[in-house]
C-alpha cells in the first residue's frame, strides 16, 4: 500500500504538473474550446450524410430520382464538409476572447487569412474528365485518357487553354474540410496570438466616445487585422513562386504524418490508455485527450465521410480505422474506462449496499456514456483494486476493434458523427451499420468479462466491511440498551 502511495505521489508531483501546464496553455485551451464550434455542424452534417446515403437500395434510388439526394448532399457539403472554416474561426475567437478582447473580429481575420494562404482555384473539370478517356453513347472508351492528352496540342491554342487551364477565383472545398484542418489550427492559433499581442501593445485606432460602440470596435480591429492579412499576403506570394501554397505544405508536412500516426495501432492504444490514466488521478482524461487527439482524428472522420458520400468507403481507397468516432464510440463507450461491465455486475451480482446503490444510480447515465457517479462514487479514481480493468478494458477494446476493421470483419467507420451521448448499439449502427452494432455489443461483453472478477473481489471486501460495521452498531445498540 505504501508503494502504491509512493507511486501516486510520484505521478502527482513529477508527471502531472508539466502535463497540466501544457494542457492549460493558451493555445491548447483555444484548440480545445475552439474545436467545440465545429460539433453542431459535424452532427447536423452527419444527419444529411445519412440521408444522402440511405443504405436501403430502393429508398436511395427513389431519393436520387426525386432529386432529394442532391439536396441532402448540398446540406452536407456546407456543414460537415467545410468544418475547417468553423475551426479556424472558433480557435481565433476563443484565443482572443480569453485574452479579454472582442473575439469575433479576430475570428473573421483568421478566416480571411485561411482563404488567403491557399490557391483559390480548382483543376479544370474538362481536363479531369478527359483523363479517363472519351466514351461513346454506350459508355465504351473509344480513346484512352493518354491518347486524349497526347492530342490536345493539335487543337487551336484558344481551345487548348479552355480545356486545360485551372478554374480560378473559386474556393477549393477540398481544403475547407478535413484536409485543411491542420492548416486551420495553425492559422487560428497564430492569428489569435498575433491579434492579442497587437491589442496588448496598443496597436489600435481609438475613436472619440461620441462614435457608436459598434463602429468603434471595427476600427479597433482594423490595424491588427490589416497587419495580419498583409503578412499573409506576402506569405502567399512567396509560396506562389514555388508553385504551391502554405496550406498544401502544412498538409504534406504535418497533417499527413499526424493522421498516419493517429490512425496506427500504436496511436489507438496510446489514446485508449491515456484516457483512464488521467482519470485515475482525478483529472478529466476525456477532455485532455479529446482536445489533443481530436485535432487529428476529426480529419480522419471527415476523410471517411467523403469516401462514404462517394460510395468508395474501404481501406483500399484510403479509409481510416481510427477516427473521432472510434474514440467516442469505442474507447469511451459508456464512459471513460468502458465501465458498463462494472454496472452490470452491480445490478446482478453485487452483495454490498454501496455497489447496489451506485449501480442503480449509474445505470441511466451509463446508457448515455456518462460514468462520473462511478468514477467518484465507488470510487474508481485512485482505487488500486479497480485500476487494472479500468486501464485494460479500453486498450483491449481498441486493439480488438482495430483488428476487426483491419481484417475486414466489420467495415471502416463511415464518418457519421453520432453525438457522444448516443447509447451503445444505436451509435454503432449509425457509425458503421449493423455489423458495427453487433461488434459494439461484443465490446460490452468484453467489458463485463474483464471487470467481473475485479468487481467481485472489491464487492466482497465492501460487503465484509459493511457487515462488520453492522455488527459493531448492533453491539453498540445492545450495550446501550443493557445500560438502561
Automatic annotation (TrEMBL):
Protein keywords: Cell membrane, Membrane, Sugar transport, Transmembrane, Transmembrane helix, Transport
GO biological process, one term: phosphoenolpyruvate-dependent sugar phosphotransferase system
Recorded topology in the membrane: Multi-pass membrane protein
Any Pfam family: PTS_EIIC
GO CC annotation: plasma membrane
GO MF term set: protein-N(PI)-phosphohistidine-sugar phosphotransferase activity
Membrane spanning residue stretches: 36-56, 76-96, 103-123, 173-198, 219-244, 288-310, 330-349, 386-405, 412-431, 437-455
Record function comment: The phosphoenolpyruvate-dependent sugar phosphotransferase system (PTS), a major carbohydrate active -transport system, catalyzes the phosphorylation of incoming sugar substrates concomitant with their translocation across the cell membrane.
PANTHER family hit by this protein: PTHR33989, PTS SYSTEM N,N'-DIACETYLCHITOBIOSE-SPECIFIC EIIC COMPONENT
Protein name stated in the entry: Permease IIC component
Organism the protein comes from: Lactobacillus selangorensis
Amino acid at each position: 500500500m505504501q508503494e502504491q502511495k509512493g507511486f501516486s505521489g510520484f505521478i502527482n508531483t513529477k508527471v502531472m504538473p508539466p502535463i497540466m501546464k501544457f494542457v492549460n496553455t493558451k493555445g491548447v485551451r483555444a484548440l480545445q474550446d475552439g474545436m467545440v464550434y465545429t460539433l453542431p455542424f459535424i452532427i447536423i452534417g452527419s444527419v444529411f450524410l445519412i440521408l444522402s446515403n440511405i443504405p436501403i437500395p430502393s429508398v436511395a434510388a427513389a431519393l436520387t430520382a426525386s432529386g432529394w439526394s442532391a439536396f441532402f448532399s448540398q446540406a452536407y457539403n456546407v456543414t460537415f464538409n467545410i468544418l475547417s472554416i468553423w475551426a479556424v474561426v472558433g480557435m481565433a475567437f476563443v484565443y482572443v476572447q480569453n485574452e479579454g478582447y472582442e473575439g469575433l473580429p479576430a475570428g473573421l481575420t483568421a478566416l480571411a487569412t485561411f482563404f488567403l494562404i491557399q490557391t483559390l482555384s480548382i483543376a479544370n473539370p474538362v481536363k479531369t474528365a478527359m483523363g479517363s478517356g472519351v466514351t461513346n453513347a454506350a459508355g465504351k472508351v473509344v480513346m484512352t485518357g493518354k491518347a486524349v492528352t497526347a492530342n490536345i496540342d493539335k487543337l487551336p491554342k484558344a481551345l487548348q487553354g479552355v480545356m486545360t487551364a485551372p478554374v480560378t477565383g473559386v474556393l477549393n472545398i477540398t481544403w475547407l474540410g478535413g484536409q485543411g484542418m491542420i492548416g486551420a489550427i495553425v492559422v487560428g492559433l497564430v492569428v489569435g496570438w498575433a491579434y492579442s499581442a497587437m491589442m496588448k501593445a496598443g496597436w489600435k485606432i481609438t475613436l472619440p466616445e461620441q462614435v457608436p460602440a459598434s463602429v468603434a470596435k471595427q476600427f479597433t480591429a482594423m490595424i491588427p487585422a490589416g497587419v495580419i492579412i498583409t503578412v499573409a499576403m506576402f506569405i502567399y506570394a512567396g509560396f506562389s513562386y514555388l508553385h504551391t501554397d502554405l496550406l498544401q505544405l502544412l498538409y504534406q508536412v504535418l497533417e499527413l504524418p499526424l493522421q498516419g500516426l493517429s490512425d496506427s495501432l500504436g496511436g489507438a492504444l496510446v489514446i485508449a490508455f491515456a484516457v483512464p490514466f488521467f482519470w485515475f488521478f482525478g483529472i478529466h482524461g476525456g477532455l485532455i485527450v479529446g482536445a489533443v487527439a481530436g485535432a487529428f482524428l476529426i480529419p480522419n472522420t471527415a476523410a471517411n465521410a467523403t469516401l462514404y458520400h462517394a460510395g468508395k468507403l474501404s481501406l483500399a481507397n484510403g479509409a481510416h480505422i481510427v477516427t473521432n468516432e472510434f474514440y467516442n464510440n469505442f474507447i469511451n463507450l459508456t464512459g471513460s474506462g468502458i465501465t458498463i461491465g462494472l454496472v452490470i455486475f452491480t445490478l446482478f451480482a453485487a452483495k454490498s449496499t454501496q455497489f447496489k446503490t451506485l449501480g442503480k444510480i449509474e445505470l441511466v447515465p451509463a446508457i448515455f456514456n456518462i460514468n462520473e457517479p462511478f468514477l467518484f462514487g465507488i470510487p474508481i479514481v485512485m482505487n488500486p483494486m479497480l485500476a487494472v480493468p479500468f486501464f485494460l478494458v479500453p486498450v483491449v477494446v481498441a486493439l480488438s476493434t482495430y483488428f476487426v476493421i483491419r481484417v475486414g470483419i466489420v467495415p471502416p467507420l463511415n464518418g457519421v458523427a453520432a453525438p457522444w451521448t448516443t447509447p451503445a448499439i444505436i451509435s454503432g449502427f449509425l457509425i458503421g451499420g449493423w455489423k458495427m452494432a453487433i461488434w459494439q455489443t461484443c465490446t460490452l461483453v468484453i467489458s463485463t468479462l474483464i471487470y467481473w472478477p475485479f468487481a467481485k473481489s472489491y464487492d466482497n471486501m465492501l460487503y465484509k466491511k459493511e457487515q462488520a460495521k453492522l455488527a459493531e452498531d448492533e453491539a453498540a445498540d445492545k450495550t446501550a440498551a443493557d445500560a438502561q
